[in-house]
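Key result, reporting period 2: structure in, sequence out.
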């Protein structure tokens, strides 16, 4: 399925805007849902591999430390 160059560039720009903007937005707005979306977006977009790679990152972001 071919896509246009404009759509590809807009998608790439949106990816980088979300990658840089979500942590800033999550810090500015105290929303648990926004912080969770930010954690999942960063983990999913920056990791290559399966669940054995992503799960420790998500655990560090989502699960509170014991003790």
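The corresponding designed sequence is given below.
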């Amino acid at each position: 399925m071919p896509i246009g160059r404009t759509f590809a560039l807009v998608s790439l720009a949106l990816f980088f805007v979300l990658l840089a903007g979500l942590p800033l937005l999550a810090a500015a707005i105290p929303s648990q849902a926004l912080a969770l979306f930010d954690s999942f977006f960063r983990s999913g977009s920056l990791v290559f591999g399966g669940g054995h790679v992503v799960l420790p990152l998500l655990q560090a972001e989502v699960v509170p430390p014991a003790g």
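The two ends are 51 Å apart (CA to CA). Residues 57 and 63 are 10 Å apart (CA to CA). This case is discussed further under Risks and Mitigation.
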